[in-house]
Amino acid sequence: MAVRYSKNKGFMIQYKCTNSYVNTFSPIGDVMKNGGVDKRIVKTKNAIRTAFKELVQKKDMADITISELTEAAGVTRSTFYMYYDSVGAVRNDIEDVILDQIEKIMNEADLVTSMLNPYPLLFAITNEINKYDEYNRYILSSNNSGELLDKLKKMIIDAFVATMQKNTQIQINVAKAKYVAAFCTAGICETFKMWFNHQSTLTLEELCSHISQMVSKGLAMANDMIRE
Predict the structure, then answer these.
(1) How confident is the model at residue 137 (pLDDT cuts 50, 70, 90)?
(2) What is the pTM of this model?
């Protein structure tokens, strides 16, 4: 087991399962005085998340009741309310796990190079999402993907603009740069959403390659527009 801190949700615990790690979040309140984490709390929250993932594949999230969720998780309502105040809060918790991993990928990437060749970053991000979505199609389903995609788009836009501002070789118009980033990011997210939700003959690698070519050409054309 390894523990690290995330600014999104607090302490993230990594449990090793065979040759891979399973990530879960534990809020600061779950951390004991000696720096450890209460495994009972982690086990309970994981049971609630797992129950949510199973139920949301059978019905829309808006139709899931707390009674259904607690019964499926094998916990009482009072236990549920110790950690979450609604069904939506459970989904937000799961999404934050994914976003934290994506944030880590972006922090480790060279975003300037990624603007010229977006393929490595695109593939790393979508492959991360695909890890979770393999068994939980709700993540990018048409009814439930809105908030996750909005958070992801904001994360990418902010990172793109911040990188451009740090590049002292060019002076940019921040407002225009945000529009360019929003345009590109929205198109990319919708394209991947279609790919995740429909059977396609394209592999993930091929899709990322096609999008990368379009984005790099588009950014090259937009380069003059965002300069001061």
Answers:
(1) low
(2) 0.65
Look-up of token digits 């040759």: 19
Question: What would the two tokens of residue 205 be?
Answer: 């690698």
Asked if 61 and 51 touch (Cβ cutoff 8 Å), the reply is no
Q: Of 19, 23, 18, 41, which Cα lies nearest the Cα of 94?
A: 23
- Phi first, then psi: what are they for 110, rounded to 5°? -90, 100
% residues pLDDT > 70 (the chain):
70
**CA angle centred on 19, ends 30 and 16, rounded to 5°:** 15
**Side chain identity, residue 191:** T
**Residue found by looking up tokens 């499926």 in the block:** 72
For residue 6, pLDDT over 70 is answered with no
3-state secondary structure of 219: helix
Query: Roughly what angle, to the nearest 10 degrees, separates helices 39-56 and 87-108?
Result: 100
- Backbone dihedral angles phi then psi of residue 93, each to the nearest 5 degrees: -65, -45
- Name the phi and psi angles at 6, rounded to 5: -120, 135
